[in-house]
Request: fold
Amino acid sequence: MILSPKLKRFARKPVFWVGTGIVVIVCAVAVVSSSGGAGKYDYVEAAVGTVRQEVGVTGEVRPVEGVDLAFEKSGRVRRISVAIGDDVYRGEPLVFLEAGDLYAELEEAEAGLEAEELTLAELERGPTSYEVNVARSELEEASQALANQYGSIAATVEDAYAQAESAVRTKTSDMFSSSHILEYNACDSSAESRANYYRSRMADMLVEWRGEIDSLGSGNDALLAALETAKANMREVNRFLNAVSDTLTKGCELSDSTVAAYRTNISTARDNVNASIADIDTVLQNIALKKKTVLLKENKLDKLIAGASEEEIATQKAVVRKASAKVDNMRAQIEKTILRAPFAGVVTKIDAELGEIVEAYTPVVSVVSNSGFKIEIKIPEVDISEVSVGDRADVTLDAYGDDVHFEAEVAAIDSTETIVEGVATYGAMLEFAKQDGRIRSGMTANVNIITGVSEDAVFIPQRAVVERNGGKYVRVLEDGKAVEREVQLGLEGSQGNVEVIKGVKKGDKVIVFIRGE
Reply:
């Protein structure tokens, strides 16, 4: 086939076939008509060139890192340490909320932790000789106090006996004969019988009690028993006084003045008896408390000498950890009142004023990274299968026109779709191959993602391919006749050109149309 000079010039220049998201770059071929056999054929010669498949989309330049910072809790702004346009380093504090109450709680928690740590150190160190001596001294003092309390029992019992004897033999002596019978008619036989019974019983009780007191030993158990006996006897004396009081009825045989005098004596005797019972109870309570104190001091001394057990140390360590966790929690709460830069960058916005109350999760400060930029794009569903992470891309920015190109690479693709105007799309992010001072956040980017490249590829028009029974075939003109060949295809172009991997070689005359067929 001979081409005209004009067609030769055209064939030396690359032609771009641009379709919906796909571009194939090939060298142009000319369609030639020929006659032979029963009809006429339109054919092209299979050519060789670079086939590059691309997906074209539009996106926006964004910082690699850019955040709007907000507090987790509402509060009053105490301090703003930066201004819009300031460069900030990672971790730099930007805005502070008032946190005086939290600092007070932190101080309390730190003091508690220090106390628990000291206790743990003491347990692990063990007792000093000074501490053991102090514990021994405390035990001796407690033991002496208990001994002194036991020593007071005899006097308490003697006092109780004296009050009982006074009540029976002095305060009520004028009311009874020597044979322990009332000197007057009580006009109440039942009350009179009870009074006579208790008076006789008191006489025997006093004699028996006196004997017990005189033979009282110095042992603690004997002293306690004597004290309990004294308490029981004093209650019997109270019963006697109550029985006698019941016999004092005015208008019987006794004058009003006599009844009044007897009642005064009985009341005095009863007060004295009750006071003695109270003294006995006090001594019993003091002995019980001092016994408990002695036991505690003994246990303390024993523990000091034995040292802390592994269980005690482990328990105290747990207490320390709990106190430490409380301190950490308070520090974390305070940290939440400070907005810090999450990375090095530039402050682009501040939406707060000193003294203002800001709400939780409301953006207060915006920071963009100065470490680089990315391109955010959305890829239509029909093209997503062609794009993979790592694909290279050619980028132009509207700000600089089509003649300024930047290299980029697909860094991430969303796994879930986003519906845009009823069409399923997939978000993706590209990274620039190198930093360039001309790139700014917010610029519009025109992106051609290179999804496949084949060098020195044989290609033909897509319309020359026929599909049949799962196979792909083309017809090639050989010696003026159409011969069918099975082919294996590669990259496809949206304008009807396709790479042939097998079945056609350069220069083969591939039929695209048979006239009269």
In short: The chain is about 40% helix and 30% strand.
